[in-house]
């Protein structure tokens, strides 16, 4: 029904308008008992064999929602009802910011892909905190970044602010230095500034009553040498793991008319490269840390491929938009069939 009726209708409209429309609609109906019962019965797969314990946290299933969809923590409860085992909010920044100018979100239908140049548009970390205070047992990741106006030499302070603000309200943190849509942000992936940033956050973490797992989200465009640096940095800073991968700046092999739009590309074209990065990190590190696999997952087989490559968990974004919530159920059922 989603792919034959709902998606063709939604895809007639501007993608960012559709995103906000869906949020408003789900917010209105999502709190009703009828909605909850319908979606839970249709999409959720409850089975103890799906449970995963990763970096000290217990996930009810290994399929999560990637950051960027629920930037401001407005819909995590309703999204959890659709069957996600965890929801990652953000990227949030210390201060609210509008992001880049519109139009900034593009569907590439022929490629089953999306290009976005949103630019960390969000209501600011304090607004997210107020919404997260109402959380009812959804496992939440907090994806944090820097404000656009903050120069890189002061970026650490932005990450510290969001870390402190979110600490009591999320289960794990994700340090985002890999988005291509904030000027010069990816320079923070270089070994020295990245090590300094992660060590600073780990130092803050050590002072808390209980440490929260800190993960690093990396770009798919890193070279093998840079990926080896990432392995060294993870070991040196003792962070909990890596999310592989963010969107790509590559446009190789695209067919769609608007393929030349600037921004980060996500969806099917990213599938193979994301899997390559996961496998490289897993093999070269001797499985020294957990990896959350994300990028180009549009089928249950795509998810299993990420898990086989070395991922402990997977996340959806573009595949969720193109395939609908049935994809979550399909992945979980495929995992169970392997048991």
From TrEMBL:
Q: One Pfam match, by short name?
A: DHO_dh
Where along the chain is FMN bound? 67-71, 91, 143, 176, 217, 245, 267, 296, 317-318
User: Taking every annotated instance into account, which residue ranges of this chain make up the domain Dihydroorotate dehydrogenase catalytic?
Assistant: 50-336
Annotated catalytic residues: 179
The protein's location, in the record's own words, is: Cell membrane; Membrane
Task: Please name the top-level EC class of this enzyme.
Answer: oxidoreductase
Q: What is known about its subunit structure?
A: Monomer.
Q: Its family?
A: Belongs to the dihydroorotate dehydrogenase family. Type 2 subfamily.
Provide the function of this protein. Catalyzes the conversion of dihydroorotate to orotate with quinone as electron acceptor.
Protein name per its UniProtKB record: Dihydroorotate dehydrogenase (quinone)
Organism annotation:
Salegentibacter holothuriorum
